[in-house]
Amino acid sequence: ELRLEFLKLLAERQQWQMLVDVYTPQTDIQMRCYQLLARLKLGNQEYLLEDARSVWLSGESQPPQCDPVFERLQQSGLLTPETVWARLKLAMDKGNVSLAQWLGRRLPAADQKLLTHWLDLHRNPKRLSSVAGWIDTEPTRDILLHATSRLTQQDVGRAWAAWQQLRNQYAFTPDQIGTIEYEMTLRAAQTSHKLSRELLSQLDNERVDEKLFHERVVLALREHDWDSLLQWTTGIPPTADAVRGPWLYWRGRALESIGQPEEAREYFRRAAQQRDFYGFSAFDRLGKPYTLNHNPLPEDPEAKNQVLRTPAVLRAHELFALGQYTLARREWTHAMENMTSYQMQMAATLAHSWGWYDRALLTLNKAESYNDLVVRFPVAYKEGLEKNAGQRDLDLAWVFSVVRQESAFVEDARSPAGALGLMQVMPATGKETARAMGLKKFSPSQLMQSSTNIPIGTTYLHSMLNYFDGNMVLATAAYNAGPGNVSRWLPPDGCTEPDIWIEQIPFLETRKYVQRILYFSSIYDWRLGRDVTPIRERVAPVRKRGQELVVDLSCGAGVTASAG
Predict the structure, then answer these.
(1) Which residues pair with 34 in a beta bridge?
(2) Which of 11, 144, 174, 476 has the smallest set of CB atoms within 10 Å of its CB?
(3) Considering Cα of 422, then 423, then 424, then 428, what sign does the dihedral take?
(4) Whether 7 contacts 30, CB under 8 Å
(5) Shortest CA distance to 538 belongs to which of 508, 514, 513?
(6) Which 3 state secondary structure label does DSSP give 1?
(7) Residue 205: is its pLDDT beyond 80?
(8) What 3-state class would DSSP assign to 497?
(9) Which residues contact 29 (CB under 8 A, 6 or more apart)?
């Protein structure tokens, strides 16, 4: 920050040589332009035009500080029609029509006519179906892909019909075809379009990532179509953990559902190798206790002291101790930039020992070190959490999991949406809950203090549990997405098995949130020195609120439970 302010001052004073001398690569586009201008003023031509071209190639309008350099670039002849078209494409991809129109003035007449067609299709992509007879060139294909993508968001059925014609008429690359068909498939699935099954089935498995695999599972579960789910999990499991765990688990569930329990158990055993929601749920299907695989970080005083002596770490520690948390976090981030994975692991143990739990967690994630469960699952604010969970008859491990997920134990945490404190309570929710608790003179700023945040957060969590008849899955989802959304997601009648209901939560953030809270709770049982409660004992079949005692085989043989 100091360097950036100094560079701005040098630019204002036109001290070009000093600006070049102290300049380091900047993300601030205005400063990048100033540096180019300084080199131009000093007559430093080496790579100037190439660097100016890279700044010029942007979908955004650039600041006036670059104009003199861009004029030199124009005079050089490097801004060919092909280069102008490349920038125009970037502008259209960002929806920056005014920049595209300005760039169009630099194009030959034939290309200006193409741009007119492009702008017309941008405004009204439904006209794509009437496009015929265009010469197959790269600019033409750019226009058609852009319009197809726009139409996909408006009317995926119409886009798919138009694409069937275009794909055979123009020489799109395999990547272009794959990208546009991925986009159509995802859009069809997310909007439950009648094309979704066809598109999900025919998509190349190599392009089936976490999002598309999830949509395949949701479609199969919604239609009780275990055969399709079995087909979509045939072959070699994906290597990416984000897809591999769900792939193995749902293949096991599909095999189980069509009467092949032994084959199912093999896939559950493989899924159980991962320590996550699917891994723990697989243990539950096998009827076995969880293997947590805690592996403490090594005790290495020499390496730890070496990290501690790093100037940026020393500064971060002092700033943290002084309560200068923003500056401390910046120093810590700077310190981690040049560390090895092992050094970051040592740094994480230091941060944990100082009570700087969020930095410890983030640093271990950056180091891709996930097996020290003591450092990754801190037991902080225990007295307050234990007291308030006990007063409201809440599962203490569940409450710890909520705090860990919401703020990573940062007392003054503030989310972009405005949620505050350890349990990330929105000010309006805090005010309403404080009134219900009889708290006098409540101010949202008090949510930044654990002594207020924990009582209000646990009270609100308890209210969600009561609202959803004691169902922890629904209460957890409601804490993240609100009770209104969760109520809309409930089955209209009967009940749904909890893992199936969770998989169909339409908000990605909420779905991941519920999954994490549930498996975190089992880990926190262990951290709190209690018997580990499996996920299956924390969840219950999902049904509409207030539904009476039922026996419903669709939620598992022998399920007999009240709504609570």
Answers:
(1) none
(2) 174
(3) negative
(4) no
(5) 514
(6) coil
(7) no
(8) coil
(9) 55, 62, 63
- 193 φψ region: left (φ > 0), alpha (ψ -120 to 50), beta (else): beta
Contact criterion met (CB below 8 Å) for 160 and 189 = no
Q: What is the DSSP letter of 411?
A: T
* Separation CA 295–CA 291 (nearest Å): 12
Q: State how far the Cα of 161 lies from the Cα of 152, in Å rounded to an integer.
A: 11
Question: Angle at Cα 500 formed by Cα 498 and Cα 502, nearest 5°?
Answer: 65
Q: Residue 554 pLDDT more than 70?
A: no
Give yes or no for a contact between 186 and 508, defined as CB atoms under 8 angstroms apart: no
Q: Identity (one letter) of the amino acid at 89?
A: K
- The pTM assigned to this predicted structure is 0.90
**Structural tokens at position 221:** 């579960």
425: DSSP letter: B
For 496, the 3-state DSSP assignment is strand
3-state secondary structure of 87: helix
Q: Can you give the C-alpha Rg of the chain in angstroms?
A: 29
HEC string of 33-86 equals HHHHHHHHHCCCCCCHHHHHHHHHCCCCCCCHHHHHHHHHHHHHCCCCHHHHHH
Angle separating helix axes 48-56 and 67-76, nearest 10 degrees = 110
Residue 185 · residue 203 · CB < 8 Å: yes
Amino acid code (one letter) for 168: N
List Cα–Cα distances, 282 to 220, 256, 262, 276, 534, in angstroms: 19, 12, 14, 10, 11
**Cα–Cα distance, 541 to 474 (Å, whole number):** 10
CA atoms within 13 A on the CB side of 219: 28
pLDDT tens, residue by residue, 404-418: 999 999 999 999 999
- Residue 425 pairs in a beta bridge with 420
Is 487 in a helix, a strand, or coil?
helix
Which residues are CB-neighbours of 539 under 8 A, at least 6 positions away? 471, 472, 473, 498, 499, 518
Q: What is the mean pLDDT of residues 62-89?
A: 94
d(CA 53, CA 50): 5
pLDDT of residue 562: 28
* pLDDT number for residue 129: 83
Q: Give CA–CA dist 406/381, Å, rounded.
A: 14
Q: Which of 32, 62, 30 is nearest to 48 (CA)?
A: 32
Residue 204 has pLDDT above 90, yes or no: no
What residues are annotated to the active site?
406
> Quick one: which H or E segment has residue 365?
helix 357-366
Separation CA 67–CA 297 (nearest Å): 54
Distance in angstroms (rounded) separating the CA atoms of residues 340 and 350: 15
pLDDT at 207 over 90: no
